[in-house]
Amino acid sequence: MNRFRLLTGTLLTSAILAGCGVPSTVSSIGSTPSVSKNDFRGNGTSRREIVVKLTPGIGAMSLGIKAKRVIPSINTMVVEVPEGKTPEQVMAELKKTGRVVYVDYVNQVILEEAAVDPMMKDQYALTNTKATTAWNTTKGDARTIIAVIDTGADLNHPDLKDKIVSSYNVFTKTSAVSDAHGHGTHCAGIAAAALNGVGIAGIAPNAGLMPVQVLSAGGGGSDATIAEGIVWAADHGAKVMTMSLGLYKRSKVIEEALQYALDKDIALVASAGNNNALNDPEKAPHLPSTYPGVIEVAATDNQDKKASFSNYGDTIAVAAPGVDILSTVPGNYKKMSGTSMASPAAAGVVALIRSRYPNLKQAEVKQHLQKTAMDLGTPGFDQYFGHGLVDAAAAVK
Ligand SMILES: [Ca+2]
Predict the structure, then answer these.
(1) Which tens digit of pLDDT belongs to each residue from 326-361?
(2) Catalytic site includes residue 186
(3) Contact, 104 vs 50, CB < 8 A?
(4) I want to staple 297 with a disulfide (CB 3.0 to 4.6 A). Which of 230, 239, 346, 396 is the partner?
(5) What is the pLDDT of residues 166-203, one digit of tens each?
(6) How far is the centre of ligand 1, averaged over its atoms, from the C-alpha of 387 (Å)?
(7) For the chain, the helix, strand and coil percentages under 3-state DSSP, each to the nearest 5
(8) Residue spans per domain, the chain
C-alpha cells in the first residue's frame, strides 16, 4: 500500500487516463482485454484485470496504476493486475487510498445461446431423461463430484479432461489412472461429459468427475478392490458414486464399504445387471445394486421399453437409458449397451439434484429421484422400471 503513496503526484499524464476531457469512445491502451478462458478464474472473475472508478480529479498515475482501457463518459477504467498480485490485493490497496469511487472485478460474460455438442443428436438419453430441459435450471457444478468406480478413464479425452477433479488407482495406489478397457471412460462420459462444442454431453455436464480404477484392463477385479475404491472415493469428496459392476453373491467387504459411503452421505448408484434375471437381496443378491440404500438402476431403450437384458426386482429404484448409448471411449466415441450405461445416466441426474438441492441428504436424494421419475409399465412401482424413468427436468424444478 505504501507503493501508492510513494508514487503520489510524480506523474502528470494521468488526467487523460482518468477520463478528463477525452473523447467519449472507448480508448484502448496497450494490452488486450480479458477474453480467453485462461484470463478468468473458476468463479468467473478476471485474474488479470479490475475495474476502477477514481474520485473526480484524481489521476491514475498518482495512485501508481495504469489504465489499459478507459470508458471516459463514465469515468471508468480497466487496470491490469501486476504480476504476483491478486485482484483482491490491488483492490484493497486502491480502496485504502480513499481516492476511488469504487473498485470491482472484471467478470466473464458468456453468450446465452443454447450450446449443442455435435453428437447430441445421437444421444436420445438426453432427450428421454429431459436432461436438456433440466440444464435451463442447472448443469451441475464442479463441487458435485461423481466418482466412477470402474476400469479407470481416459484422463486426456477432450470431453473429460477439464472435468476430472481427482483420480485413484487401487492397484498402484496412485492417481495414475488409464482405461485400456474403455468401460470406465464410457460411463464417465454418460454422467458428465463436457458441454463444450465437442463430441457428446453428459447428463450433468458441469459436475466434477473422479475416476476410480478398481478393475483391470481386462475388466477383472474383486470385491476387495472394489471396496477399496468405494472407501477411497468416500474419503476424498465424492458426492455421488456410480458403480456399473456386479457380484451375484453377498460380500462382507463390499457391504461394509457401501455402508461406510452411505454413512458419509454419498448417494450410491449401481447397475442392476444384464442377465434379464430377478434380483433379490436375500435369495438372488446382486452387489452393489441390491444393498439397502443403493439406487439400483434398470435399463430402458430409446422407446422407454425395458432393455431385454435388464435385471429386475423389488429393489429397482429407477430406470434409465441403457441401449445403444453413445459416449466417450479412450480417444474416441462409441455406442455401448448395458445397465452399465443406465447407472451413470441416473448418477448424472442425482448430481443435478445434489447441485440444485445441496442440503438434501443421500436418502432424501434417492426419494426425490424416485418421486420425480416418469412412471412406466404398470401404474406405480413395478419390478422392471422401479419408480420409473429418471426425469432430470422434474428432479431439478
Ligand atoms: Ca462435449
Answers:
(1) 999 999 999 999 999 999 999 999 999 999 999 999
(2) no
(3) yes
(4) 346
(5) 999 999 999 999 999 999 999 999 999 999 999 999 99
(6) 30
(7) 30, 20, 50
(8) 2-107, 120-396
